Amino acid sequence: MAGAANWYASGRTAAIALVTVLVWIGFDLDNSRFLSGDNIAGLIDQIVPVGVLSVGMAVVLLSGEIDLSGAAVGGVAATVAARLAVGDGLPAGLALLIGLGCAVAITLVEALIITGLGVPSFITTLGGMIALGGVLLLVLPSTFEVNLAGTSLGAINTTEIPAWVGYAIAAVSAMLGSWAVLAKHRSGSGQPPAARRAALALRLGGVLVLCAIGVVTSWVLGGQGGIPVPVLAMIAIVVLGELALRKTAFGVHLLAVGGSRASARRAGLSTRVVVCGAFAVLGVMAFLSGIFDASLDLGVSASSGPSSEVLDAIASVVVGGTSLFGGAGSITSALVGVALIGSITNGLLLLGVSVALQSIVTGLILVAAVAVDMLLSRRAATGQARA
Amino acid sequence: MTDSPLLAAEPRTGYLEVDGLVHRFGGRTVLDEVSFSLSRGEVACLVGENGAGKSTIVNILGGVLRPADGAIKLAGKPVSFGSPADALEAGIGIVYQDLALCDNLSIAENIFLAREKTNRAPLVRALARRAMEAEASELLHSLTAAAWDVQQKTSRLSGGQRQSVAIARAMLLDPSIVILDEPTAALSVRHVDEVHRLIKGLASRGRAVLLILHDLNEVAELADKVIALRHGRVIGVSARGAYTVDQLLLAINGVGHLPGQDKDLPDDL
User: Fold this and answer.
1) Nearest residue on chain A to B169, judged by CA atoms?
2) Pick from A313, A331, A335: which is nearest to A322 by CA?
3) Which terminus of chain B, N or C, has less C-beta within 10 A?
C-alpha cells in the first residue's frame, strides 16, 4: 500500500507548495499588506519554532509512531537553558548543551517506554505532555518567568545573516537537487517512458519551486535587515534531514519500520533502535524549537511549550504530505505544511477574521488533509490487491 | 540425533539439531518436546495440519519467538536467538509465508534491508545505492533468469515476483540453513518448477533446507526426510521412499501411522 502512497505523498507535497503560493496571491489581492516585507518577515519568524518541531514530528510519524509532548519538551529544555544561562550565569553554550541533553533524555525515556513496555506512543507522549507541564512549573523560578531581553539567548532571533547566503544556499540546493533528480531519472528503467517523464517533471518542478521560494524569501528578508539565524537553521535542518532520509541506512530503516514493523523486524532490523533514533531526533528538534520560541518571545514562562504548538506540528506534517500511518512522506513536508498553515493563519489575521474562525479553518484543513490521506492509501491498497 | 562423538564426526549427522522444543501461547501448548535434526545437503519437510506447530517452529528458528524450553544446536554448538538479527547472523535464512517484505520500499532496499552497503565517506555513511541495485539485479537474475527493475516498489509486483524477491533476500547472506515456509503456495506452475530447482540446487551445494509444504505430492518429490507433526508433537520421521503419500496423509490426520512411527504414541494426542 505504502509504495503507491509514497508517490501520492510526494506529489501532494508539491501540490501543497503550489497551494501555498496561490494562498499568498489570494491574500495579497485582498490585502496588499500580506506580501509586504515586514509581514512576510514576521510570518516566517512566527512559523520557525513550529517548523523545526515539525521536522522532529515528521521523523516520528515516518517511524509509525506519534508524539504529543514535543512542545512541552522544548518548553522545559529552553527553560532549563534559560535559567542556567541567565539565573546561574553559566556560559550560554554550556547552558544550551545541558538543555539539549535534557530534551533528548526525556524523549529517549518516552521511546524506551514505548518500545520496552509496549505502551502506545499516543498514550506515552500524552502522559509526557501532561507531566512536563508540571515539570515546567518546577524548573521555572518563583516568578514563573525568565526574561531573555538583552541576553545572548534572546539575541539568537535578532542575529541576521546577509541575504546573499540565502541566494547561495538556494542556488546550490537547486543544482544538487536537479542533479539528484536527473541521476535518478537516468538510472531508472522498466516503467513506461510517459510515467518516467511525468515523475521527472514533477520532481524537477518541486525542486525548482522550493528553491525559487528560497530566493524570494532571502530577498524579502534581506530587505528587512537579513535572514534571522533560526530561519537559516530551519532551512538547513530540512535540507540535511531530507538528504539523511534518502541517502542513509537510517532513513531506509525509518521507512521500513514505519511501513511494516513486523517485516522490518524479521529482516533483522532492531525496531527498538530505530524508534529510539526517531525520538532522539525529535528531542533535538523540540529543544531547538523551544529555544527559538524563547528567543522570539524574549523569555520563558509558564505558557512556554503550549500543546497547541505540537498539534500545529502534527497538522503541518500531515497536510504537507507525510502519512499519519507511517512509512510514507518526507522531511520537506514539515516545511511545506507549516508554510501553508502559517500563511492561512496570518492572512486571516490580516483580513480581520476572528480568532475563532482562524481555529475553525485550521482544524478543517487538517481533517481534510487526513481524509485525503485515508482515501489515497485506501486506493493504493486496493490497487495492490488488484495487481 | 545422539550425543555420540563418533556420530557427530559423520558428515551426514545433524547440522541443525532441535531438542525438546516447547512453546506455549497463553497457556495452550503449541509445541510439545519437538526434536529433529537436519544435515548439510539434506531437504527436510515439516508436514502437519493447520495448527500442528509448523510455523511456530519456523518463528523460533528465525528468532521471532523464544521457546519456553528446549535447545537448538548449530554445528554442535548451542545457540539462542534473542532477535531475528541473531538468527540471520548464525546463518539461518528464512522465506516467511507472508514473505516479510516492506511494500513501501524498493526491491533493492528490501533485499539489502538491515545490511545496506555504504560509501566510505569521512563523516556520513551514505547509501551505496548503485552497488546495491547492481548486486540485487544480479542476484535476482541468477535466481529467475529474468531482467529486473530493482528500483520498483515491491507493492507493484506479482505474487511470483514477490516470492523471488523474498528468496533473493534470504540468499544474500549465503545462509547455511535455508527455511522456506509454503514457498510454492501462491505460484504458477512455471514458478513452482523454478522454486523446486532452487531448492534442489541449494541442497546439492551443501545447504541444509527445511521446508513447510501442504501439497504432499510435492513433499514426496522434494523431501529427503519428512517430519510429521500433530498437535505440536513430532509423530514420526520418515526417509524418502519409506512412506507413501497416503500413509503420510493418514498419519498427520491422526488416523494412521508412518512406517517406523512410535506405536506407543496415542493416536489422539
Assistant:
1) A267
2) A331
3) C
Per-position b or e across A2-36, b if 16+ CB within 10 A of its CB: bbbbbbbbbbbbbbbbebbbebbeebbeeeeebbe
Strand partners for B211: B45, B180
Give per-residue pLDDT as tens, A43-102: 998 999 999 999 999 999 999 999 999 999 999 999 999 999 998 999 999 999 999 999
Contact (Cβ atoms closer than 8 angstroms) between residue A72 and residue A304 = no
Whether residue A252 and residue B169 make contact (CB cut-off 8 A), yes or no, is: no
- Is A313:A50 a contact under the CB 8 Å cutoff? yes
Q: Per the structure block, which three cell numbers stand in for B174?
A: 549465503
State the burial class of residue B9 (Cβ atoms within 10 Å of its Cβ: 0-12, 13-18, 19+).
exposed
A181 CB contacts (<8 Å, ≥6 apart)? A200, A203, A204, A207
Assigned C-alpha cell, A189: 528503467
**A347: distance to nearest CA of chain B, Å?**
37
Distance CA A201, CA A203 (A): 6
Please tell me the distance from the alpha carbon of residue A152 to that of residue A96, in angstroms, as a whole number.
Answer: 11
A175-211 b/e (C-beta count within 10 Å ≥ 16 → b):
eebeeebeebeeeeeeeeeeebeebbebbeebbebbb
Say yes or no for a CB contact (<8 Å) between A327 and B118. Answer: no
Q: ipTM of the predicted structure?
A: 0.87
Name the pTM for this structure.
Answer: 0.89
State whether B102 and A191 contact (CB < 8 Å). no
